[in-house]
Amino acid sequence: MDGDASGEEGASIDWTTDDELEVLAETGTSSPPILTTDGIEVIAGNEEASSSAGGPHSKLVKQFVGMGFSEKLVLKAIEENGGDTDLILNTLLTYSNLEDSPEQQLSLGSDPSSSDYNEAILDDISDMDSWSENDVAEGIDSLSEKHKMLLSLANTGSLSDKEKSLLVLANMGYTVEEASLAMERCGPEASVSVLTDFICAAQVAREESYLHEDDLKQNRFTNGNSKDKKRKFYEVCKRKNAIEEETIRLPNPMIGYGVPSQQPEHIHRSLPEEVRGPPYFYYENVALAPKGVWDTISRFLYEIEPEFVDSKYFSATARKRGYVHNLPIQNRFPLVPLPPQTINQAFPLTRKWWPSWDTRDKLNCIQTAIGSAKLSERIRSALERYDGDPPESVQKFVLEQCRKWNLVWVGRNKVAPLEPDEVEMLLGFPKNHTRGGGISRTDRYKSLGNSFQVDTVAYHLSVLKEIFPNGLNLLSLFSGIGGGEVALHRLGIKLKNVVSVEKSKVNRDIVRSWWEQTNQRGNLIDFDDIQQVDGERLETIMNSIGRFDLVIGGSPCNNLAGSNRVSRDGLEGKESSLFFEYFRVLDFIRCYSR
DNA sequence: CCGACTATGAAATGTCTA
DNA sequence: TAGACATTTCATAGTCGG
C-alpha cells in the first residue's frame, strides 16, 4: 500500500552487458575468462542506443573506471582502440605499468597539483621503512608498525579524509605508495573499494612488466599476449576479493560470550599480552553494518574479535550490536532488578487490546524516529471494517507496519508508537532521564535511539567491579546521554573522574544533570568535539587526574545503519568515519599508559 | 528559526523450499 | 545447494505551522 509504487524503473535499464567483466572475474580458473566478440557486439549496440546520454562510449568508460582505471586513461585507451574491449584492457594495463617508471612517463595529463594531499608527509613515511614489501601475500599481521607511525603523525591533530583512507588501505596490507598513488588517480571522493580495484590493476601491471619486459618495450601498444595479462589481472582481483570476503559473520543466536539466561558451557578467549588492560576499552556499533566494516574495525582495534549481542536477551526490545573490548569475560553478572523481558511485562495495559494474531513477544530495535499518526489512523480504519479478526491480508499488513515502527496496542483497533519515557525504561535509563532542560520530544527520541541498552553494557562492564573497588577514571567518547556512565553507576562502580566527549549540547546537559542528581563525588569534564581532543590536551588531563582505566565509546552509526536511505556510506561516511578518531584517542591513551 | 510530522528503500541476513 | 521469500534496520530531507 505504502511504498511499492516503483515498478517502472528497471525497464529502461539494460543490465545484460554491464557486469560482463565482473562476472568473468568471479568464475574460477578452470574457464579462462576471455571476452567474446559477441559481448563486444552487444556493447556496441547498447552504446548506440544510449549515445544521447554521456559520451559515445560512456558505457565502456564506466565499465573500465569501475575496474579501477582512471577516467583519463580509459578515455585515451578507447580513443586509440575504438570499441574493442580486449585492446582497451591491454592498453590500460600497459599504461598503468608505464606510469610507474618515470623515464617512460607518458603525457597523460594527470595533474599532481590538483591533488591536495600532503605529499611531503607521505614521502617521509615511505622513506622511513621498507613498507614497499607487499604484505598481501603474507596475510595481514596484527597492528603493524605502519599505522602506528601514521597515527603518531595524526595524534597531534585530527585525521583528514585522506589520512583515514590511507590508514584503511595500509591496514588491508597495501603499501603506502600504492595507496597514495591510487588516491591521487581516483580522486578525493573515491571509495576504498574503488581504490583497491585500482591498486589491483597496478599490481598486475607491475607483475606484467616483470614477466614481459621485453615484450612490452618492443610492442607497447599492440595486442601482445593479452590472454596472459587478463588471466593475471583476474588472479590478482581474486586475491583481493579473498581478502575482502574474509568477512566476520554474525552469530546465531546473537549472544556473544553469553547472556544471563544462556551461558555457554565453557567460554574462553585469550587476548594477546599487549592488549590486556588497563587501560580497558569498550567499543560499540551496529551489528548489521555494510560488508567489511566490522573487519576494518576489528583490524584497527588490535585484531580483537567483536562480541555480537542482541539486547533482546536483556530486555523487551531488540538491539543487535557489536562490541569490541579487552575486558575479562568470566564472572559477569547482570544488573538487578532484571528489566521486563516481554512486551507484555513491560506494558501490561496493552494486553487488553492485543489481538491474538499479533504474536510479537519482543519489540524490534528502537530507532531515532517514530511511526506517524497517519499510519496509526490507516491501521485503525483498516481494522474497523471487520467485527472479529480481519482477513489474513489485512493482518499481514498491520503486523508488518507494527513491526517496522514498533507500535503497541493502546485501545480497540488502536496502535501507537512508544512514549519517550517508555523507551527510557526499555533501554535501562531512569525515568525522565532525557526529560526537561528544554529538550524537545523529537530530540528525546533521537538521543534515546542513538543510545546504549544499559543492561547489556552493564553486563559486560560488571567484571570491572572487583578490579576497581575504589572506582575508576573514565574516558567516555561519543557519550550521548551517558549510557556507559549510567551502567557503571548502576553497577555500583564509583566514578572518580569522567572525561566525556559529546557533540550535542542537549546530550551534554542530560549527562550533567544526571551527574548532579545522582550526587556524584567525582569530577565531570566534558568536551564538545573529539577532533579537538589531541595528544597535548589528553596529556594535560592525565597529568592532572591520572591515567584512564576505561575508555568507552560507540562511534556514530548513521552511515552504517540500515534505516538510512540517504547516506549509508560505510565507515568512510561523514559521521561514521569518526571511528578513526576513537581509535586515535584510544591508541594515544594506550601508548601513554605504558 | 524551531519543532512536530511525514514520506522516502535498500542492503544484509535469515528462513524456507524445490 | 541454490534461489525465492521474509525480516530487520542507533536515519534523512522536506514540509508545515507557530
From TrEMBL:
InterPro entries: C5-Methyltransferase (IPR050390), C5_MeTfrase (IPR001525), SAM-dependent_MTases_sf (IPR029063), SAM_MeTfrase_DRM (IPR030380), UBA (IPR015940), UBA-like_sf (IPR009060). GO terms for biological process: methylation. PANTHER family: DNA (CYTOSINE-5)-METHYLTRANSFERASE DRM2, DNA CYTOSINE-5- -METHYLTRANSFERASE 3-RELATED. The active site is at residue 557. Pfam families: DNA_methylase. One of its GO terms (molecular function) is DNA binding. One of its GO terms (cellular component) is nucleus. It is an enzyme of class 2 (transferase). This is DNA (cytosine-5-)-methyltransferase. Residues 55-95 form the UBA domain. Its EC number is 2.1.1.37. It is found in: Nucleus. Belongs to the class I-like SAM-binding methyltransferase superfamily. C5-methyltransferase family. Keywords: DNA-binding, Methyltransferase, Nucleus, Repeat, S-adenosyl-L-methionine, Transferase. The keyword 4Fe-4S does not apply. Residues 267-594 form the SAM-dependent MTase DRM-type domain.
